[in-house]
């Protein structure tokens, strides 16, 4: 954000700490704050009528949850849970709504991020429909490995089956195959990535596509560096 926007917002940022599995907001819930992960990862789940839910996107330090509410509607379309424990900063929606209305730079930034997040949702939908459980699990672990900074990941097969929308047996078989190939180690609900390059090769193309889109979004625009309000610069 531009310096002027940051000065108005930063005094109102409130640090919060979530644990794995905590619910930030349920689908249909009214959002009073936007949440910006600072080490945690948030998972957006689409909830079906029978109560089943599947992840369609996740958010780490590169983004925030609740920016749609700052632009249009304050009702959450998704259930948001904590996928990786850690610190998060939250900001009252009203402050972000003000910045969105008054700053062209913030409007462009929020819309650009929303488009990038939507691309992750679309790629995840295609991945869930077309790729094997093992490929999807590789993609997901790579995304978590990026956010966790290489630390071990505290996930059970049951948790992974819910996130991936796969049955537990298929997740167990995928994990066993990945461990036998030397890609990961798995012990008592803890997953450690052993061969990052091998995991990327075993993944479908979806991880690389989404990462490329977010890398492009995260390139500092000239406006953020120079401090004027002409919006995000076009990448050359």
What structural class do helix, strand and pairing data support?
A: alpha+beta
Rounded mean pLDDT is 88
CATH architecture of the largest domain: Sandwich
Low-pLDDT sequence parts:
224-236
CATH topology descriptor of the largest domain: Jelly Rolls
The general outline is globular
How far the N terminus sits from the C terminus, by CA atoms, comes to 21 Å
Strand content: 15-25%
Cα-based radius of gyration, to the nearest Å: 18 Å
Number of helices: 10
Largest sheet: 4 strands, antiparallel
CATH homologous superfamily of the largest domain - what is it?
Jelly Rolls
Strand order of the largest sheet: 2-6-4-5
Give a nutshell description of this structure.
This protein has helices at residues 3-9, 67-71, 93-102, 104-130, 133-148, 157-164, 168-180, 196-202, 206-218, 222-226; strands spanning 14-18, 23-25, 33-37, 41-47, 53-59, 79-84, 86-92, 184-187, 190-193. With 236 residues, the protein is α+β, with helices and mostly antiparallel strands. A four-stranded antiparallel β-sheet has the order 2-6-4-5.
